Every structure is written in structure tokens, then in C-alpha cells.
Amino acid sequence: MTIMEILEIVIPSAILSATPLILTALGGVFSERSGVVNIGLEGLMIIGAFIGAVFTILFEHIGLGAASPWLALLVAAIIGAAFSLLHAVASITFRADQVVSGVAINFLALGITVFLVKKLFAGSGQTPYIDHRINKIDVPLLHDIPIIGPLFFSNIAYTSYIAIILAFVVWYVLFKTSFGLRLRSVGEHPAAADTLGINVSRMRYLGVALSGALGGLGGAVYVVTIATNFGATTISGEGYLALAAMIFGKWNPLGAMGAALFFGFAQSLSIIGESIPFLKSIPDVYLLIAPYVLTILALAGFVGRADAPKASGVPYIKGQR
Amino acid sequence: MNTKRLSGAMVPVISVLLGLIAGAIIMLISGYNPLQAYGDIFQMVFLTPYYSGETVVTIIPLILSGLSVAFAFRAGLFNIGVEGQLLVGWLASVATALLLPAGLPKVIMIPACIIAAIIGGGIWGFIPGLLKARFKVHEVITTIMMNYIALHTTNAIIRKYFYAEGERTPNIPDSASLSSQFLYNLTAGSRMHWGIIVALIGAVVMWFILWRTSKGYELRAVGFNPDASLYAGMNVNRNMVLSFFISGAFAGVAGAMLGLGTYHYMTINQDFTGIGFDGIAVALLGLNSSFGVILGSILFAALETGEIGMQSLGIPNDLVQVIIALIIFFVASNYIIRWTRDRLKKKGGGAK
């Protein structure tokens, strides 16, 4: 196998497995930039994955065919946002410890979805498989470019392109619009933002709801492109990995995307590594733990310092200094 | 003072009640009978010897996991890494049991295995502690990362060095086992083991360290107000690292209880045990005190054992996870309970 052939397998698969991470990490960026720590990304992905599977099956059932997964993605984003409001109410209005509330979100998501799966599918622990997954495409013209074409523009799911484009959109929204400035200001110095007439609570609710929508989308994308059904173990750790990507990307949408792509690369190497001669000799445990070790190193400042938004994790109480 | 303490204890009690009521409402909506479900759980857990024994089996690591989280909380640290520390402790204890000569007497074997778990779990806790003290890295993130590193690393070590048929390690020798024929007969063949003594000793040890030693006073002071402690001449960083080591050690012992008591081997785990996350709930519910952690563990273990009873009524057992999640929610949002209580009090005062 030549290097080129290896890359032609590894890179498209890396992009595919990075896509849900990119979307969820972008959600994490919104939430944390507004000042709310969101350990609940895992739970939001679980909800999204559940909705993605159930609604794709439902839409297929009523004869929507190939449009089913797309509509299911939309529903997943909406339900994800709605579910994340629990975290918002607890941590913004009721000043709950945001980490604890996030942990509760994760518990709740897993409990409710598996409970519902058993209710909906006659006691079975997982949903049936979906018939229509989202297709992989070769981008016209671009995939004919030598070297880059086969690597980056062939055999890639639509959703992956959407995720990458969204990363740029989120970056633009956060850093080039007044909404983004306000969102970041309540995450850095809510008291100052409040003085300037920005509604801190509302901005934070928006931040969390956006993270819910993107987290839900991330989970659903995982189902309609990779897993194709939902069970208790469908999402196991992807949300935490997205959290790591967000931090490794220094709370920046583009950084988060880069980190997610890198994690996806490490993941697909660990899966495909078996069939690649020179990787066979490396135990796959190193590839499996690489994302986590790198995140820790990044935080410790060995890979450039990563600082959280200043007010992240602190409930804002009006009038308190 | 007394009334203050009482009202502090009200928050967890109300949270548990709200969680159970919410669970009951979900059961009603889904067409089940909540009274029958809760009644069955109670009967099964407290009146059927086998299930009582199995409940204790769940209680044992849960107490230690709760102590681990509570100890860190007392020192102002959030240890979300119990899962990883537990896995490392589990592997350390089983590996020690397998490597030491099987003929050693129990009095040497068991303490040796537990000490290995203390060191293993402690080191896994020490790393995030050090990173926090030295580089100011938030421990929540590092401990989550350390969990996954532990999961993959312990699996790899088992595959490479301790692999046995069935994706697990071989069984540990009898000399390292905490099980006993006496407890087996007493509980009609459950897996109940002497680890309950270890867990209770753990609770006493935590109480003793925190409230009866000057080091414990320092740890609490650092947790309460790191700046004031620094001015008072305490080494805040060293205390932080020490707290994390001790917290990790408790989690490691929880893992040893699985290895030496519940299973007598370690499996290759696809996912976390969940004991560490439950430990967070137990610690919160128990207001970070030894006694509270024991009570919280009993409640959670009873609910989890009761899952089986629910299933026999045709109720999906995941409902228990929902109830547990709701209890955590209510405990976390205790502001809502305090707020309501203050409102009620004010109203009562106004009427006078």
C-alpha cells in the first residue's frame, strides 16, 4: 500500500468521524463563551442521536424516503435546544453548580432515551436500523484535482461540509457581529456587560440553547452517517471528546474544528491502523489515548496556553460584587 | 445552630422526595403503578436476603466513590475522575493478587492488594492535582481526560499481560478474596463480601482525617478560602495535591472492592462503571459528610437493585437512572428549594 492509498482511506474516514465532534464542539463554544460550562454535551448528543434515529425511522415510515434523515436532523436540533434549557434553567436562573447540572443532564439523557426506546420498540434496547443514511459524495470538479481531490473532495458526506462551513459561520458570528461581542462579553465580565444594558441571563440562555441545538445536531449526524441506529452505547464519550476539542481549540470555533479533525484522524487511524503495515507495530492504545493526552498537555501550556472565558462557570447574581 | 443544621439536611431530603415524586409521575403517565413499583423495590431490597446482599455489594464501592468525591469537595476540588481512578485501583489490586504468590496468608495478601489500589488510584488523582497546583489547569477537564486515558490503558494492559478467556483477567487466588462462605449462606447466595467493613473504615478514616487532624483542618481551610489559607501560611498548592491524592486513593479502594470482592477479576471495559458518577450524586446528597455519604449510598444502591424489581413489573429499568438524574438536578438547584422555603418563611412571618 502506498502512502497515498493509505491517506485516501484515512482522511475521508477522519473527516466522517470528526463531523459530529465539530458540530458539538461548536455548541460548546457558544455555551462556554456565554459563561456557562457545559459538561452536558454528551447528554445533548445522546438526545440528538435518539431523535435522529427515531425520527428518521418515523419519516421513512410515512414515506419521505431520502429526505427523512435531513428532516430528522432538524428535529434533533430543535429538541436538543429544548432539552438544554433544563441545564440553562438550573445553572442560570437557579444558580446550580454548572458542572453538577451538566452531569445530571448526561444521566437524564441516557435514562430517558433508553427508557423511551424500550417503550417505543417493544422492550428492545435499541432502535431498528435506518434505511436511508446521508450519502457520501464526490464534489463535482474539485474531486478531479490531483492529490487534494481524492483526499478532501471524494467520498465525503454532505454533513461534513456543512459542519466545516458552520465552523466559519460561528467564527464570524462570534467575532464579527454585535451579537457575538455581547455573547462574549457576558462570558468574560457579566457585570460590565450588565451595566451596558446587555441582558446577561438572556444571552446565556441563548448560548446554552445554541449549544443544545448544535449538540443535538452532532448526535443526530453521528446516527445518520455512522451508527445508523440508536442504543444505550451509541454515544459513549463523543460528547466528552467534543468538550476536549473545544478546549484544545482554545474556545475558538476554528480551533475547535481543527482539534475535532485531528481527533477524528487519531480515531480513524486507531481503527484502520490494523491494515496499515507501519502502523501495525504501534499498539492502538497510543492512538486511542492521544486526543486526551494532547488536551491535557494543551491545558498545561505545553502546546500554547488555553484559557477559559473568565466568567465561565460562575453564576451571575445582579448587584453582587 | 441546631436548627440551621437541620434545615441544611432538608435540601437533600426534599430533593429525594421530589425525585421520587417525579419518577412516580413518569410511571403514571406511562401507565404503570408507582406505589406498586416503589413497594416492590422496598420489599425486594430490605426483605429478600439475596437482594439485600446484592444491595450491599452495590453499596460498598459507592460509599468509597462518594467519599472520594466528598473529600475533594471539602478541599474545594471537584473530582469528576473517580471513574478513572477506580479503574486504575481495580487493575492494581487484581494485578497484585495475581502477581504475589497465591500461598500468602489473607492478612498479608488483602492489605497488599488494597495498598496497591490506594497507590494506583492515588497517583491517578495526583496528576490532575499537580496540574492544577503547578499550571492552574482546571481539574474538571483533566480528570475527565484522565478517565478516558485510564479506560483505554487498563484495557490495553489486561490484553497484553493478564488476558484470560472471556475478555477479562484470570480469577484472583482465594487468599486475596474478600468473599466468605458465611456471608454467602447468610444472604442466600449473593455476592456480598467483607468489603463493607473496608468501606465503613473508609468513612471513619475520612471523618478522622478531616475533623481530627491538623492536616485535615488545613485541607478544609484551603477548600473554604484558599487566599485566607495562603495568608495564614499554609502551603495551598501542596494541600491541593495531597487532597487529590487522598481522594484518588478512596476511588482506588472502591476499584479494589470490585476486584477482590464483587467479581474476583477485572473485565475489559467497553465503558465506565458509572460508580464514579454516582459517587458525585452520593456526595452531594450526603452534604460531603461521611455519614451522609453512607446514607446516600444506601438510597442509590437500593434504587439500583430495585431496577430488577421494576423490570419484573414490566417497567423499563432505565427509569431508575432518570430518578437518580432528577435527584441530582434538585440537589444541584438547591437554590430553588432555599428560595421557596425563604418565601414561605417570609409569608409566615408577615401573617404574625
TrEMBL record, chain A:
The keyword Phosphoprotein does not apply. Coiled coil: none annotated. The chain crosses the membrane at residues 6-31, 43-64, 70-92, 99-117, 156-175, 205-224, 285-303. InterPro entries: ABC_transp_permease. GO terms for molecular function: transmembrane transporter activity. It is found in: Cell membrane. Its main location: membrane. Pfam families: BPD_transp_2. The keyword Transmembrane helix applies. GO terms for cellular component: plasma membrane. Keywords: Cell membrane, Membrane, Transmembrane, Transmembrane helix. It is a multi-pass membrane protein. This is ABC transporter permease. The lineage of its organism: Bacteria, Bacillati, Bacillota, Bacilli, Bacillales.
Automatic annotation (TrEMBL), chain B:
Signal peptide: none annotated. The chain crosses the membrane at residues 9-30, 50-73, 85-102, 108-127, 192-210, 240-263, 275-299, 319-337. It is a multi-pass membrane protein. Keywords: Cell membrane, Membrane, Transmembrane, Transmembrane helix. GO terms for molecular function: transmembrane transporter activity. It is found in: Cell membrane. GO terms for cellular component: plasma membrane. This is ABC transporter permease. It comes from Pullulanibacillus camelliae. The lineage of its organism: Bacteria, Bacillati, Bacillota, Bacilli, Bacillales.
